[in-house]
Amino acid sequence: MSNSSLVTVFILTGLPHSPVLDAPVFGIFLVVYVLTVLGNLLILLVIRVDSHLHTPMYYFLTNLSFIDMWFSTVTVPKMLMTLVSPSGRAISFHSCVAQLYFFHFLGSTECFLYTVMSYDRYLAITYPLRYTSMMSGSTCALLATGTWLSGSLHSAVQTTLTFHLPYCGPNQIQHYLCDAPPILKLACADTSAIRDYQAPGNLVMGLWLFSTLCQEAMLKLRDKVRE
């Protein structure tokens, strides 16, 4: 990824609202954010200390809580800063790159994880007697790793396509976070090819990697059932 642009700082316009609502909006989002973080930390702690919860379902729930906690942290603190003062709207080029990457990384990983959790519940309902042996620790780890790798790959492609373009003009992002669509509007180059490629290309790439890992897991499960 190269940055040959003149833009070194972006300005986030934030949530569209009346200035008189800054304090109430700030308070609401702060409370929701704190409750989200504390709630997920509580889930992680309870699963950690209770040995009865050391099962595949709660293993995936641990991953989900961890993702959800950091997914909120990637966006909400900066959004709160934009409500506090005008200077809080500024975000450096590299910080914007990092926010976009982790936003898509955690978001897509969470989507893949929901698929894995659905698959886990399917096995628990369909094969209740063999479920424990089918969803072994190594199988759970493989499926969880697949979600993280798929999310990382998706985000890397999305971030690279977005920031390899030159940004040499306006720097106001019409959003409360660094996301690809509003950023591409600021590029000093034709973005039509990237827009046409991003959604289907990233989807196919992510699904290809994820389906490959799922097929490997299914082969292992089939071998265990035969044993």
Outline the structure in words.
The chain is built from seven helices and three strands, in the order βααβαααβαα. With 227 residues, it is mainly α. The chain has a three-stranded mixed β-sheet with strand order 2-1-3. The N and C termini lie far apart (49 Å).
Characteristics:
3 strands; 7 helices; mainly alpha; disordered N terminus; Rhopdopsin 7-helix transmembrane proteins; 227 residues
Globular, elongated, flat, extended or rod-shaped: what is the shape? flat
Query: Span between N and C termini?
Result: 49 Å
Low-confidence segments = 1-5
Provide the spatial order of strands within the biggest beta sheet: 2-1-3
In helices, the fraction of residues equals over 70%
How many structural domains in the coordinates?
1
User: What is the typical, i.e. mean, pLDDT?
Assistant: 85
**Highest-level CATH class:** Mainly Alpha
Number of strands: 3
Summary of the model, kept short:
It is a multi-pass membrane protein. By secondary structure, the protein is mainly alpha-helical.
Secondary structure topology:
Blueprint: E1 9-12, H1 22-49, H2 56-84, E2 90-92, H3 93-126, H4 131-134, H5 137-163, E3 172-173, H6 180-184, H7 192-226
Parallel strand pairs: 1-3
Antiparallel strand pairs: 1-2
Transmembrane segments: 26-47, 59-80, 100-119
Keywords: Cell membrane, G-protein coupled receptor, Membrane, Olfaction, Receptor, Sensory transduction, Transducer, Transmembrane, Transmembrane helix
Subcellular location: Cell membrane
